[in-house]
Amino acid sequence: MVDSKVDEWADIEDDEYQLPPREETKTADGLKKVTEYSISVDGFLKKTITTTRENKVVHKVSKGAAERRGWKRFGQCANAPPGPEQGITAVSKDTVLIEWVTQIDEEEEENEDDTLEQAKQKALKELRMLQMQQRMKERNAGGVVTTQIGGEPAKPNWAQAMSMKAQNANEDTAAPKNPNIWVPTSLRGNQAAAAAEGPGSGGYQRDDSATVRVSNISAKTTEGDLHELFAPFGAVKRVYLSRDRKTKESKDFAFVAFQKISDAQKCIQTLNGRPYDHLILQVEWAKPSEQRNPSTMQRPK
Amino acid sequence: MRPIILAGHERPVTQVIYNREGDLLFTAARDRSPMVWRAQQGGARLGTFEGHGGAIISIDVTADSKYLITGSADNSARMWEVNGGKQVFQWDFKCPVSSVSISPDEKHVAFATSMLMKQEPEIHIMKFSNDPSTLEAEKVQSLKGPKVTMSRALWTGAGDHIICGAEDGTVRKFDVKSGEEIACVKEHAGGINDLQIAPNKVHFITASADKTAKLWDLEDMSILKTFKTERPVNSAAISPLMDHIVLGGGQDASQVTTTTTQERFDSRFYHKIYETEIGKVGGHFGPINAVAFSPDGKQYTSGGEESVVRMHNLDEEYFTKNYN
C-alpha cells in the first residue's frame, strides 16, 4: 500500500493529515460560536469551541483614537484574526480584588479614643494580679505554719493578709527607681521574704487544681473541637492546645481548665479511654506547675 | 475585577506607557520586540515593532500617537510609525540607551546612555521632528552629571529642564540650554529605578531600591511625601484621578529563586497625602518592573519580571470608597 514516491514512510501520515478548517457560526440569539482545531501536546486532535456574545457599547472617543481603531495589525500578529489573540491576550480566570488595608488604621483610632478605658482595664488587671499573688502567699503560709514572713507570724487571716499586701505594695512602689522599667514579679517587694518562701512563690501562678491533661488527640483537632468535647461537663475556663512553636502543628496533647474540680473529676471518669477521632483519649489530672522546673515558663507545655 | 493578561513578551518587562488618549498601551521588554495593545478594546495586540537587536529599556510616544521611539541595549534608538510598525529613523550610540524622552514641543528628544565600555554616562539632546524625512541625527546638547547609569531622564515644565534619576540615588535637574546642572539632591539610600512626572506636571515621583518611593516638588526639588514599603520599589505611578499612587516592586530579581520565603508580588496603592497604604492587588509571579495609570485614571497596568503585563480596569468600589 506504500506509495513508492514517498521516501520516508513516517512522513505519510503527517502529510496526509490536515486539520479541519475553522468554523464560525452565528446563532439566532446573538451568540457567536467559533470552532477551531489544533493538535495538543500529547498528539491528540483538540477541538476548541468558543462561544461569545457580542454587545454593542457606544464609547465616545477622540478623533485620533477613532482613526486608530481602523489601523491594521502588523509585526508578529499581522495575520491574526480580529479580536484578542489566543494565548496572547486573555481575561484572568480569577477575580482579583483590591485587598484593602484600612482595618489597622481603624483599630489605631479606636485605641486612641479608648486610652482611658484601657488604663482602667490595666489597673484592674494589676489589682487582680496582686490579689492572686497574695492568695498564693496566703496558701503557702497556711500550708506550712512554721514559715515566717519578714518576722511576722503567718496566719490564714484575710484582713491581715490585705494589710500585709498593702505593706508589700508600699515597698514595691518605693523599691524601683524607674516605674517604667518592668521588674520580674519574683524580684518585686521584699526579696528576702521571697527567698524564704522558696521557688515558685511570690510570682503569678495559675490555679491548676481543676485542670485536666488530655493526651493522644489527633493532629487535626483544634481548640474549637476540644471546647465542643469538654463543654458538656461544665464551664470550661481555658483550653490550651500544645502546638509546635515553628510549624504551629498540634503536639497531640492539651490542657483543659474547668471552673469546678467536680466537673474535671466527672470529665476524667467519662472521657479517659474513650475513642475520639480514631484514637483513644487519655485524660488525667494535670500536674501542678510547682512540680515542674520553676526556671521554665509557668505555662503548661 | 478581572485583569486582562497580556502574554506577548518573552523576557522581563521594562516599561509600560499609555498614549495621550489612553487607547493604546505600549510595552517594552528585554526581548527585541516592543508591542502596542488596544487598551480599551479588551487588550487586543495591534502590533509589534521588529528590528532591534537587543533588549528594549525605554520607550516614548509622540502626543499624536503617530511615532514611537525606543531605546535599546543594542546601542541604538529607533523611531517607528505606530501605524504599520515601520522603522523610519535610527540613532546610533556607543553604549546602551537607558532612557528616552520626547520634549513637550516635540522638537528635541533626550536619550540617556548608560555606563558601559568605559563610556561616561550622558544625556544626549537630539533634534527631533514629526516629519522623519527631514530628520537628521544632530546633537544639540550634551548633559553630564552622575557617573552611574541614569534610569530615567525626562523633560519637565515647558521643556527647558531635564530631570534625571540615577542608580547612585541622586536626582538631578539640568538646564538644557546652558547644559548646566541646576540641582543635585541625594535623598534615596538606594538606586532610583523609576521616575515619573505627575499628570499635574508640578510633582514627580521616584521609586528606589531603598524600599521607598518619594513624591517631589519639581520646582524647588524638595520632598513632599515618602511612601515606605518592605520591598525594593521598581516603579511608581501617580493617579490622574484619585489622590493615589501605585507602587510596583518586590524582591530583587536575582534573589527570587534563592530564597525560600513565599513571596507575594503586589501592586500597592498608597494614599498620596496621608502616605498610608490603601490596598494591594496581587497576581504577578515575579517582581513588578513597571506600572502606569491610563490618562483617565480608570485603568492601570503593571508589567512583571515574569514577562507578563496585566491590565486592570478598576472596579466601581475603588472610585466610590471613602478613603479618609
Overview of this protein structure:
The complex is a heterodimer of chains A (301) and B (324). Chain A has eight helices and 13 strands. Chain A is of the alpha+beta class. In chain A, the strands form four sheets. A four-stranded antiparallel beta sheet of chain A has the order 9-10-8-13, covered by helices on one side. In chain A, strand 2 (31-39) and strand 3 form a beta hairpin. The longest helix of chain A has 29 residues, at 115-143. The radius of gyration of chain A is 38 Å and the shape is elongated. Mean pLDDT of chain A is 73; it is low at 104-109, 144-156, 172-176, 191-203 and 291-301. With 324 residues, chain B is mainly β. Chain B has a domain at 190-318: Methylamine Dehydrogenase, Chain H (7 Propeller). Chain B is built from one helix and 28 strands. In chain B, a hairpin with a 3-residue loop joins strand 19 and strand 20. The radius of gyration of chain B is 18 Å and the shape is globular. The A-B interface holds A 59, 61-62, 64-65, 68-69, 71-78, 80, 82-85, 87-102, 105 and B 1-8, 21, 23-24, 33, 35, 37, 40-50, 64-65, 82-85, 266, 269, 276-283, 310, 312, 314-315, 317-318, 321. Strand 5 of chain A pairs antiparallel with strand 25 (277-284) of chain B, so a sheet runs across the interface. Chain A: Belongs to the eIF-3 subunit G family. Chain A: GO terms for molecular function: RNA binding; translation initiation factor activity. Chain A: One of its GO terms (cellular component) is eukaryotic 48S preinitiation complex. Chain A: Residues 210-288 form the RRM domain.
